[in-house]
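Quick check before the chapter quiz. The format below is the same one you will see on the exam, so make sure you can read both the input and the output lines.
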Amino acid sequence: MTGRAPGRIRIIGGQLRNSRLDVPDLPGLRPTAERVRETLFNWLAPVISGARCLDLCAGTGALGIEALSRGAAGVQFVERDARAAQAVRDNLARLKVQGGQVATTDALAYLQGAPQPYGLVFLDPPFAQDLWTPLAQRLEQGGWLAPAAWIYVESPRHAELSLPDTWALHREGVAGEVRYALHRRMPVAS
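Here is the expected output.
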């Protein structure tokens, strides 16, 4: 495996089904596998319509664009690599997708800003950077999650993640060396 993304991947469901996303050739860019996206969005089918989504460490933007294709109200993409962020913008424009905003910034820096609660968050940082715990803490403590938000987490298969106690595991799976899991935020008792 070269560690580089393919040149094109496809959207697997919704109004953009079978549309292709151009993927820049960048070191470490790892699009979520088609099979994993299909499983994830089957899990999310009852809640995706009208959802406000945050795609942190967006990379190719495949998760967020798939969400828009399936009826999400809007997606905020956050990607620090300028070339990857521009590719997401270009794909949104070429496919004439409405509701997507792209911020070219580091995910941790973005979460220092004024929070807006999201009902669905995609948390899939670069595997080599070990950002799951700090990003999860900022999401949980910073006002970025709706009371019963869904949080998708993609990580190396054997990684030991330290996620907030308020995130209850809903479903999970393994594909090769990748673990993917959907969590539900449990309301905090007052």
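If your answer matched, good. The mean pLDDT is 92.
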